Amino acid sequence: MISSVLGIAFDCPNANDLADFYAQLLGIEKTISSPQFAAVPLPQGFLLVCQTVENYVPPVWPWQDGCQQQMAHIDFKVDDLPAAVEHALKCGASKAEVQYYDTSTVMLDPAGHPFCLSLGD
Predict the structure, then answer these.
(1) Are residues 64 and 99 in the same domain?
(2) Domain endpoint, select from 9, 40, 56
(3) pLDDT digits (tens, 9 = 90+) for 6-19
(4) Are strands 47-52 and 37-41 parallel, antiparallel or unpaired?
(5) Domain span at residue 110?
(6) Domain containing 95 — which CATH number?
(7) Comparing C-alpha atoms, which of 43, 13, 18, 11 is closest to residue 33?
(8) I want to staple 67 with a disulfide (CB 3.0 to 4.6 A). Which of 24, 60, 78, 119 is the partner?
(9) 12 near 111, Cβ under 8 Å?
(10) How many CB atoms lie within 10 A of CB 25?
């Protein structure tokens, strides 16, 4: 029986670099670090895991036939969308060229994974 979520993992070219990005973005310290596996503990009680994969191919946003597809993305709740976008950019993210909503901004982490900064209720 499954008792809880341990973590969510992202493949990437360098586990420590991507974990450092998310640690800086979220203001949380990276607690697990090795060349193949690094993780940031989230306040919700699970890990944001980064796993080094040889010959990693980043996903394409938005989706395109014949290109690497995203398999998942994280939606982060924010109170101030412009400030959150600015912070993400300073941490090393980039803003996706294609956007769909006024209340959410799609960003790309340094390994190319999309994530959303979304206004909460």
Answers:
(1) yes
(2) 56
(3) 889 999 999 999 99
(4) antiparallel
(5) 57-121
(6) 3.10.180.10
(7) 18
(8) 60
(9) yes
(10) 22
